[in-house]
Specification:
It is found in: Cytoplasm. Belongs to the TRAFAC class translation factor GTPase superfamily. Classic translation factor GTPase family. PrfC subfamily. It holds the Pfam family GTP_EFTU. One of its GO terms (biological process) is regulation of translational termination. This protein has about 525 residues and is α+β, with helices and mostly antiparallel strands. It has three domains: about 270 residues, 3-Layer(aba) Sandwich (Rossmann fold), CATH 3.40.50.300; about 100 residues, P-loop containing nucleotide triphosphate hydrolases (Rossmann fold); about 130 residues, 2-Layer Sandwich (Alpha-Beta Plaits). The chain is built from 14 helices and 31 strands. The strands form seven sheets. An eight-stranded antiparallel β-sheet has the order 27-24-26-25-29-30-28-31. The chain has a seven-stranded mixed β-sheet with strand order 2-3-1-4-5-11-6, sandwiched between helices. A six-stranded antiparallel β-sheet has the order 18-17-23-14-15-22. A hairpin with a 4-residue loop joins strand 12 and strand 13. Helix 11 packs across helix 12. The longest helix has 17 residues. The protein is elongated and about 85 Å long. The two termini are about 20 Å apart. The relative contact order is 0.12. Bound molecules: guanosine-5',3'-tetraphosphate. Guanosine-5',3'-tetraphosphate (G4P) binds next to helix 2.
């Protein structure tokens, strides 16, 4: 387990003030709205409504494609940096649809903390639970935001109980809601003894904050109706007796989550949550590598690629590799070693994403996310260092669960298809297999919607109409082992063999029985459903 006590003031101030986090939630809980309010308070945008495509239809397939087409939106959604008070926030985000969770999982390797947004009426939903489990694997500190308190919500204790029981994490209230639905007036800030009163008239106005001397302060009655006040006092007393108090170390260890109650759309509770991230952290943490742990305050720069996005600007056909800086102070123009190839790379055009603008950056610190435009050299999992051979660990790769053959309707375009598919494979958007016998490609993905998106992107970005069709195979396994054994195996099973986009051998079949047989007949070979990213 990582040593999180490392979160000390001894870090250089520029690193200590960095907060790099992601938002995890089930679709519709309010992630986009909350992100937008963060940017608003971070001064990165002037008006609500700038970051997102509007309305219900946004989540329909056709609109998703439109959104992908208008890459501006997903660009700004990849990594956004902004200042808030004394802090520098890096908010890393990915599409919330479950078919894209592979991308989301990888994103979680690049952050130091996560905000879990839940809908006050729905509680912990399936996607939240899945993503939470990934955070747990890394012991990530989690801050919880219970959203939509302006609507009829569940009882506050019920919500807290559900999180504790469902996710097996202790919950401590950072705020306590006063009323709910139409009667929702605001929240009592338990950590600072403040009353936060929601402004219903203007959704973009932040709450009025009133300093009080505990719940017996007569000032409260001026703002909270008597029946709600009585309930608040009772509930807070009970909460203090029954629930654990805030404990920073337990939070940093990922065993306790503070919860804020609010309404993102009404800008309520958002600043308090942001203050919480600032106050409690964590600052950039130690990063595990095969060789050793890398500390943020080391003077030499290091980082790893956790995401590659292609064609962000269709006019330039570039790829941007998103790099989480793990240590040091990066300066534009630096020559870094690309550990996988051993070659030096001059990083002359690093970009950061300030709200929805992609801007050239002159420097960046450990904890920051920078985008490096490149022509395909940088892949997910790659490390960049000032010479040391570091291999950062923990970037997950997923077993492709669905396999389909891809066909071009125009055979003249087959060559271009190869280029498009290779690129998506490098982005991590799909696994690509070239069967040793016959022509064509087989594509492996985790969720059905990925085929639709790929089909649409191949057409939009490369002008190649394609269709996906079932193949005779349903499972793919990477095969590794001593060279002579591997060669003998490939020779004897050519009808089942393919190469992935790195040229590594993959065995394909539709029968589990086949896989078991290979295991018995070739005990020296290792068959795996995923391929290590590094
Ligand atoms: P997501 O990114 O997690 O999928 O959620 P998103 O922010 O898009 O929010 C989902 C819906 O919930 C949106 O409504 C949004 O306006 C609404 N919402 C977000 N926060 C709150 C809140 O605090 N209170 C209430 N009552 N609603 C909230 P929509 O109708 O789908 O979209 P739109 O037409 O409002 O844009």
């Amino acid at each position: 387990m990582l040593d999180r006590t490392h979160n000390t003031p001894a870090l250089p101030p520029e690193i200590a003030r960095r907060r790099t986090f992601a938002i995890i939630s089930h679709p519709d809980a309010g992630k986009t709205t909350l992100t937008e309010k963060f940017l608003l308070y971070g001064g990165a945008i002037q008006m609500a409504g700038q970051v997102r495509a509007k309305g219900e239809a946004r989540r329909s397939r056709s609109d998703f494609m439109q959104m992908e087409k208008d890459r501006g939106i997903s660009v700004s959604a990849s990594a956004m940096s902004f200042e808030f008070r004394d802090f520098w926030f890096n908010l890393v985000d990915t599409p919330g649809h479950s078919d894209f969770s592979e991308d989301t999982y990888r994103t979680l390797t690049a952050v130091d903390a996560a905000i879990m947004v839940i809908d006050g009426a729905k509680g912990v939903e399936s996607q939240t639970r899945k993503l939470f489990e990934v955070c747990r694997l890394r012991d990530l500190p989690i801050l919880t935001f219970c959203n939509k308190m302006d609507r009829e919500s569940r009882d506050t204790f019920d919500i807290i109980d559900e999180i504790q029981e469902n996710l097996a994490i202790d919950v401590t209230p950072a705020s306590w809601p006063i009323g709910m639905g139409r009667e929702f007036v605001g929240a009592y800030d338990l950590l600072h003894d403040r009353l936060e009163i929601m402004d219903r008239a203007d959704r973009n106005v932040k709450a009025e904050s009133i300093k009080i001397a505990g719940l017996d302060d007569p000032k409260i009655a001026e703002h909270v109706p008597a029946h709600l006040l009585e309930k608040l006092r009772e509930e807070v007393e009970m909460a203090r007796a029954l629930l654990p108090p805030f404990d920073r170390q337990a939070f940093l260890d990922g065993t306790l989550t503070p919860i804020w109650f609010g309404s993102a759309i009404n800008s309520f509770g958002v600043q308090e949550l942001m203050d919480g991230i600032g106050e409690f952290g964590p600052a950039p943490q130690l990063r595990p590598a095969q060789e050793r742990q890398v500390s943020a305050d080391e003077s030499k720069v290091s980082g790893f690629v956790f995401k590659v996005q292609a064609n962000m600007d269709p006019k330039h056909r570039d790829r941007v590799a998103f790099v989480r800086l793990c240590s040091g102070h990066f300066l534009r123009g630096m020559k870094l070693t690309h550990v996988r190839s051993g070659k030096a790379m001059a990083i002359s055009n690093p970009v950061m994403f300030l709200a929805n603008e992609r801007e050239l950056t002159e420097d960046a610190w450990a904890g920051d996310i920078i985008g490096i435009p490149n022509h395909g050299q940088l892949r997910i999992g790659d490390a960049l260092t000032e010479g040391e051979a570091l291999h950062f660990t923990g970037i997950p790769s997923f077993a492709p669960e669905l396999l389909q053959a891809v066909r071009v309707t125009d055979p003249m375009k087959a060559k271009h298809l190869e280029k498009a598919l290779t690129q998506f494979a490098e982005e991590g958007a799909a696994k690509l297999f070239k069967p040793m016998i016959g022509s064509g490609w087989i594509v492996g993905v985790v969720g059905q919607l990925q085929f639709d998106v790929l089909q649409s992107r191949i057409e939009l970005e490369y002008g190649i109409p394609v269709r996906f069709e079932p193949t005779q195979f349903t499972s793919a396994r990477w095969v590794a082992g001593p060279r002579d054994k591997l060669e003998a195996f490939v020779k004897g099973n050519r009808g089942h063999m393919a190469e992935d986009h790195d040229g590594d051998p993959v065995y394909m079949t539709r029968l589990q029985w086949d896989i078991d047989r290979v295991g018995r007949d070739y005990p020296e070979l290792k068959l795996t459903a995923t391929k290590e990213m590094m």
